[in-house]
Amino acid sequence: MLELYFAPGACSFVPHVGLEAVKAATGEDFKPNLVKLHKGENKTPEYLAMNPDAQVPVLVVGGKALTQIVAICDYLDRRFPQAGLLPTEPWARTQALSQLAWMNNTVHPTFTRWFRTGYFAESATTQDEVKKIAAGQLRQHLERIQEWSKAAAPFWFGARPSFHDAYAFTLLRWGGYAGTDPDSLPAYKAYIERVMQSPPVAAALERERIKLDTYKPQ
Ligand SMILES: N[C@@H](CCC(=O)N[C@@H](CS)C(=O)NCC(=O)O)C(=O)O
Q1: Taking the complete model, does pTM exceed 0.90, yes or no?
Q2: Residue whose CA lies nearest to ligand 1 atom number 6
Q3: How many independent structural domains does the chain possess?
Q4: Is 15 within the bounds of a domain?
Q5: CA end-to-end distance (rounded Å), the chain
């Protein structure tokens, strides 16, 4: 059976939703393994043997570990084409991977600067600057996602929710911590409210016990 190592509210939500969509479309079940990051469960020798970067997600397939969201999503889509997770036409599929890679390698690391500022600067003054710059960049990234979300009908790729919808939810939720009020991005928020109601996303939200309730004015 497929296994997913995930942490509530983390980026592992993206393959988590993908696996729920696969289960709904094909009946293929998965074992969810909760990793408590705050307790260092991602730093044990056993975990580091699966992912030396000490990160979630990890997908285990037949005893072998697969890391990196973009690769995990590509694998799930190729293995379960009947789930319709990504477009099949070559150009549309590659564009979809381009958007997913951008969320993963550009937006996501900007949040890392906000959440884990201590990795990037030592003094409190410099950390404040790093956070302020990251928060401004995040806002711009979220505005770009809002523009894309206006084409969602009702989801990113049409009728069925997929990885991009899950990442869009995760990034808007994280934006709340960094001072972006979801109400200030009304089209994005309305789209995410639809996404949250879809059965695969609702199942993953329930398992992770998370909501879109993180906003704190800075
Ligand atoms: N590029 C990686 C990013 C993974 C990542 O940043 N994971 C974070 C959670 S969102 C993590 O596990 N961080 C470990 C920690 O915070 O200790 C991927 O696509 O899998």
Answers
A1: yes
A2: 55
A3: 2
A4: yes
A5: 44
